[in-house]
Amino acid sequence: MLLAELAPTLPANMLVASLAVAHTMREQDARVHALTVLARYAPKLAQEQTRLDALAAASNLPHYFERVTALMNLVDILPEPLQEQAYNNAIETTKQIENENARARAISILGNHLPAQRLPQIVEIAQAFEDPQLRLNALSNIATRLPSEQQNGIYRDLLKCVKALPYAYKQARSLISILPLLPAVLLEEAQHIVDNMRDPLDRASIYITLSQNLAPDKRKEVLAKAWQLIPLIDEGYDRATVLAAIAPFLPKALRQDVSKTVLSVIATISDDYDRASAIGLLAPLLANSNSPTETVLPTYQELLDDILETAFDIDDQSKRVEVLKEGIQLYLSQDQTAQYRIWRRLAQRLKILPLSDVLLCFRALRPLIIQIAGKKAMQDIVLILGVR
User: Fold this and answer.
1) If you write DSSP's letter for every residue of 225-286 in order, what string do you get?
2) Which of 232, 154, 160 is nearest to 189 (CA)?
3) Which terminus of the chain has a lower count of CB atoms within 10 Å, N or C?
4) 204: how many CB neighbours lie within 10 A of its CB?
5) Per-residue pLDDT tens for 286-316?
């Protein structure tokens, strides 16, 4: 590792001396790593032999996964005939890896380095996995680099893998990961999988992701499905995250109900930390709200106040500071009158906290204090507290 750090800066004579050091290393993987790095910087007269030595050392590593990794780390500095030799060795070595997890990781490495015309050789290895999750992971990593005539078949395989997964949450996560890859002709099949899932949070999350791949005329229907699932989600904070994700994409007819939904979601969250975090997510939705005047709703300003007030009810110091820090960032865009008003309120809350808590809170409040009164005010506060 020291040689690798030094190599870019060493003069030619010291690089040659370093090659001698590399050849004396007893651990084969260390020798391979050193030679691979030095081959990039060795003097021209020594480069060709160093590359040959590095390739020979990498090709003979006894651990198959390490061999594949070493060969692919080296391949970009090899001349074309030696590149082909390295590719062949790496592909054949991958086939010999018994552990499926290690084989899947090796396929991912190959997928990032092999020329496109050689990718079909590792598709066969990936399709042989018995575990549908490993098969999905391996195929999704190489699908976009395959020739277009092969891609549709791979994408259908990916959907089959999703259906074969044993747990619903795994199906949901995997489907979200592959949705951006799927062509339009397969999105209907993907939507059918979602429609048959039971968990409303999983379904809503996938509908939102799916909608981004659909034409505008079909997007409304899928977003409406996600919107209808919000009341069915068990946890209040989960409802808040879905609402925050979906709101920017809602059609105008549904946006009229956003303000009321924001309030109903916040009201169901009993945990102070989750409630403050949810307000932080949802308050921006009301910043430009055009809600009817007859509906009594809190203003954006009042929701910001609620974030900071709620923060002081959180017992955990680190969580309190985290919420304060997020809330203060939202206040930095408000006018100075609003900033000073909230500072006065927070100062009263600070008075009843232990000094250690006060110091932690000041770290989060510092940007607001400086914006209101400048760095001199912060320095005065520091002097009053008797700390540096």
Assistant:
1) HHHHHGGG-SSHHHHHHHHHHHGGG--HHHHTTHHHHHHHHHHT--SHHHHHHHHHHHHHHH
2) 160
3) C
4) 27
5) 665 554 433 445 566 777 777 777 788 788 8
